[in-house]
Amino acid sequence: MEPFDLHIIGCGSANPTGRHRPACQVLSTRGKNFMIDCGEGSQTRFARMGLSMKRVGHIFISHAHADHCLGLPGLVCTMSLLGRTAQLHIHGPQELEPFMQTALATFCPNLEFQVTFHTVDTRQHQLIFEDRSLEVWSLPLRHRVPCCGYLFREKPGQRHIRRDMIDMYEIPVSQINNIKAGMDWTLPDGTLVPNERLTTPPTPIRSYAYCSDTAPQPSLPAIIEGVDLLFHEATFDQDNEFRARQTFHSTTLEAAQVARDARVGRLCIGHYSSRMDDEQKMLREAQSIFPNTVLAAEGLTLNI
């Protein structure tokens, strides 16, 4: 099975601390790195984790707050210094595009590669990118500025043909892909061999949902139902619920409630406020509602 790994580059919030760095993640699958948010200094931490910038073709930005996008100019400049020539795609709210145009014109005026910006309608749950193996959907969130999360879902693969059936029925190589796609096989005497006998089910698809920053969003659980891994911001513990309401963020219990209601496989919480100095307390709060919860941390890799 191909790797489907989430790498945490940064899991802090806007106010810098010595414990955490601004928001940034990388989802690695089938030799590609998809970056999610890009806070200040992300390219440095990216390199420290041994991840390849050359394999980053698409960057998905949740919203135009500095701790989620201010690292983009530095990242693009670093890519240029490394000799990049492949096109780079940046997906995000329309408010981000003028910033990127100005930043690139100022700091990276002679790029050898094209940077293409794709506007994401943060009010809609819609397909915004796909390739042969993966789909990316936007997830409407509730924050102080237009903001969305992202749902990454593998596309269903073909069924697996049984080697013993190929030999038993002398199936020619030219027909193997047709059988993987669901075709039955007819023997010379007219006997029909059903596809279910010739093949085994395809590899289960995997999925990851990224939800940061947001106040509780009632429509979210139904959209992300059943995902294997959910990252949901938990900027504050439950003692700071009033502050969460003021800033349109979520608490540990609210993040866990989303995971429970959506019946996800695993929850990762992060985007910690600088006020939060006891992350184990935050973990215990979330686990009281959704036991399969882990804390985000810089350098953490979660296999999906």
Sum this structure up briefly.
This protein is α/β, with parallel strands linked by helices and 304 residues long. Helix content is 26%, strand content 27%. Strand 11 and strand 12 (192-193) form a beta hairpin.
Oligomer: single chain
- Mean pLDDT equals 93
Q: Total helix count?
A: 11
What CATH calls the topology of the largest domain is: Metallo-beta-lactamase, Chain A
Tally the beta strands.
18
Note the beta-strand portion.
25-35%
Q: What radius of gyration results from the CA coordinates?
A: 22 Å
- Report the span from N to C terminus: 11 Å
| Global morphology | globular
Q: What's the CATH architecture name of the largest domain?
A: 4-Layer Sandwich
Q: What order do the helices and strands follow?
A: EEEHEHHEHEEEEEHHEEHEEHEHHEHEE
Major β-sheet, in short? Answer: 7 strands, mixed
Low-confidence region ranges: none
Order of strands in the sheet with most strands: 6-5-4-3-2-1-18
**Content-based structural category:** alpha/beta
Please, how many domains? 2
Q: What percent of residues adopt helix (DSSP H or I)?
A: 25-40%
CATH superfamily of the largest domain: Ribonuclease Z/Hydroxyacylglutathione hydrolase-like
Which class of the largest domain in CATH terms? Alpha Beta
